[in-house]
Amino acid sequence: MSRGLIVILLLLGVLWLLAPPARQKERPPQGDRMGFLNEKFDPFVLPGGAGSTVDPIARADADTEAADALREGQRLLQAGNPGAAVAMFEKAAAGGIWEAALGLAESYRESRESDLALEIIHEAAIDHGDDPRVWMLMGEIYFGKGEFALAIDAWETVMKLRPTPELADRIRQTQVEMNLRDRYRDDLSRHFAPRFEGPVLDRTVHDVAKALEDAYLAVGLELGYYPTERTEVVLYTEESFYDVTRAPSWAEGVYDGVIRLPAVGAESDLDTLRRVAVHEYAHAVVTGLAGEKAPSWVQEGVAMNMESVPPPYTWARDTLLAEDVVPLTAEELGTPFGGLAEEQVSLAYAESYVVFQYLLAHYGTYKVHDMLRAMNDESVEDAMDRAFDIDLQTAIDLSMQELRSKETPGWQRS
Ligand SMILES: [Zn+2]
Q: 83: CA distance to ligand 1 center in Å?
């Protein structure tokens, strides 16, 4: 595994244990700007409900099996199951229905495989460039990747073939968004340099900037560190976040030298956005203080304790004191989390969390700051010894002992 990947795995902003089961992402109305983001995209129909020049279903009636496969693929796609739709569209394509390429490309787009989707749609454009739906979908894929200029190019081809007021409006909105992006890049935030990979909404950008500036002050106050250089932040659509970072689906954010956040969709859940912003920014602060050497348990332990709404103590207790659970040893906890077995990862997060809760409660933020600073020139062991006069195994034992005997945590954020 490459070092970069390990670092990314280490720093995943993960509170997946607490994550409620697949939340319904609700998107509140955004006013007239970018309102089309709320609509379910149908690759077989043009905006405004304009049909196509060719009805694939009618034309495919000759080959019943292929037509059935196409209909089934469309049904699966509408039902939100693009993974299963792929096989159906492939069958329809093999049966001679070229329009199946639209469904196939859309299925890949929805499965966060934009590059594959682009390949298919560009190929379809060679022979079927006279069908506006090909260009419509191409624009949609580029738009999802945040490539606004290319999206507009593709949509302008649709406008030549089959103009609709809906699409004209979408192009106009995307141009406005593109201009806003350029402006924000320069003067959005004092301490953060945001970039965008995708159609991030005006209001969301403000929310994220506010959340990060709050994190700058709150984490700075706790850990006594305020970076002088602006921290880089990339905001993604959910699709491109998982596409680009290759983060597992339970990750809420990533810090790999750059804070990476899925921002679209987050507008409906501001509390999560704020919590994740603090968590990822805390990773930036730990790295700023300790350099690259801070191990996973330090990174995650500090970051979770800094969160605006830290994980509930009961979660850690339930995880660590569950029947048959043996807490990780210092040696195990000291390995990069990316190298741990899957069932050990949740344990590692919970344990890091309570160890730092213990250290913060008994030694204070100042000593944690000392430890992080010392890590620049010393081993983790020496840095820990210097700040707390105990080693990691002792800290684990003491925090576990406290966990067993107490109902409430000792560390409360001031
Ligand atoms: Zn993290």
A: 29
